[in-house]
Amino acid sequence: MNSNNFFVITTQQGNEGIIFNDYHFGLKRTNKDESKMWACIKKLCKASIETQASSIIKMKCINPDGTHEIDKEPTASVSMLYDEQVKKFRRTNGNVSAVPVFDRMKSSLHHYRSSKQRKIPKDSSSIVGVEARRQIGNILSLPLLPRQEIQTAFCDIIEEFSGISSRFLKLTDYILRTYIAHAVFPPSFWDVFDLIGIRPKTNNHAEG
């Protein structure tokens, strides 16, 4: 196959990749002969490509129509998965053959299932990170700034978010359109900087 069948890209993180038949492959390794192994980035996908210079020399788990072979997502419990394998084993080897007890296999099966399923984040820091949470705090603090400084401060926030992940740009675009520039609710609606010096120092006024 010639070079027209794929093209090289560089991801936002600076990683090398290729696009082949509308599928994104990430670089897995570079061999001693300078050939390269690429693996599909889709979860559970087994497809891979080996390239030499600008040509594809080998493909694995890619169907003739260009689709990829994907492992079935395991949804059953570890014990149920083990019971299914025991039944298959006994159909082949009969009941006489010894079968390892479940406890001996539990850890290896759990490891396999965990490798196929995405881990659930334990706290917010593992989802957005410390720096992202700091920038969200900066957004919430915008009403405390002088009105003429809000747009400059928000541009700094956008720049910081861009360095963390492009996913946050949807959030900053929404805030920019809704609350900052040519906004539905411009800063004159929500900026409270001018009220800081004259606001009540107690909450007695709220009690009637």
Indicate the percent of residues in helices. Answer: 25-40%
Integer count of domains? 3
If helices are DSSP runs of H or I spanning 4 or more residues, what is the number of helices?
6
Rg, please? 28 Å
Low-confidence stretches: none
How would you describe the overall organization of this protein?
The chain has 208 residues and is α+β, with helices and mostly antiparallel strands. It folds into three domains: 3-60, no CATH class; 81-116, no CATH class; 125-195. Helices cover 38% and strands 16% of the residues. It has helices spanning 78-93, 102-116, 125-140, 150-164, 169-180, 187-190, and strands at residues 6-10, 16-20, 23-30, 36-40, 48-52, 55-60. Strand 2 and strand 3 (23-30) form a beta hairpin. Helix 1 (78-93) packs across helix 2 (102-116), helix 3 runs antiparallel to helix 4 (150-164) and helix 4 (150-164) packs antiparallel against helix 5. The longest helix is centred in the middle third of the chain and has 16 residues, at 78-93.
